[in-house]
Amino acid sequence: MIFMAIKTFNLNTADLNFKNEVVAEEGGEHLKKCFQCSSCTLTCPVADVGLDLNPRNIIRQVLIGMRKEVLESKAIWQCVGCFECTDRCPQNVRFTEIIEVLRRIAVRESKNKDKNKRIRLSKEGKLKHSFDKRFTESVWLWGRTWEPEMIGRYFMYGRGFPFGALVGFKYISMIVGMIVKFKIEFFPPWNSKARKEVRAIFKKAKRIEQEIRV
Ligand code: SF4
Ligand code: SF4
């Protein structure tokens, strides 16, 4: 016998502006075109292995205003960005971009000064956001990632100091093994031309972001 947990949602608590908030963001423009055909979910490799992520369901939840439920879920952090759902969608909804929009809003709202409106990121969200941050910082610093520095800082700060550092020690032998086999570099990459070019891209992206927000 299969038991299914049925969750109920009180429509009186719905945030009816949530869908407009997503549509207003870069990448969320096509949200309302979704006609719930499920092609995205059927093709999603993450949904296929039984994790929480269900693209069609997330879109439905956004459309009916389940803002807190969606933004605090771990599902929005499980997408691996393979674009299968986007390729298969007959309505060009572009779910892979919508998930990025949801992540952006979740991170932004986790810093909301108003305690009543603040979003509590799931554990998966905190870890993924922290990893993305270390990745971006590493690219800014070196012109591309330098794994020992990036992973070291991820464990040190992303997972909470000092416990993160202790968790990181578990992987020391693996990291040394990879350095010995030349899979990752011991010394930082030093290519000032690449670094200059990458920083120019960062600055341009920041400028465009500010222009969009005006
Ligand atoms: S494939 Fe497109 S239209 Fe169909 S449910 Fe997914 S997002 Fe909606
Ligand atoms: S991009 Fe994300 S949601 Fe879409 S199919 Fe891939 S893992 Fe699933």
Question: Can you give a write-up of this model?
Answer:
This protein has 214 residues and is mostly helical. It has twelve helices and no strands. The model has no long low-confidence stretch (mean pLDDT 88). The protein binds iron/sulfur cluster (2 copies).
Structural class assignment: mainly alpha
* Highest CATH level, the class of the largest domain: Mainly Alpha
Looking at CATH, the homologous superfamily of the largest domain is Alpha-helical ferredoxin
Largest sheet: none
Amino- and carboxy-terminal Cα gap: 55 Å
Rg over alpha carbons: 20 Å
Q: Which residues sit in consecutive blocks of at least 5 with pLDDT less than 50?
A: none
Q: Which quaternary structure do these chains form?
A: single chain
- Count of DSSP strands: 0
Bound molecules: iron/sulfur cluster
Q: Assign a percent range to the helix content.
A: 55-70%
Number of continuous helical runs: 12
What is the CATH fold-level name of the largest domain? Fumarate Reductase Iron-sulfur Protein, Chain B, domain 2
Write a compact overview of the structure shown:
This protein has 214 residues and is mainly α. The protein folds into 2 domains: 15-109, Orthogonal Bundle (Fumarate Reductase Iron-sulfur Protein, Chain B, domain 2), CATH 1.10.1060.10; 123-213, no CATH class. The chain is built from 12 helices and no strands.
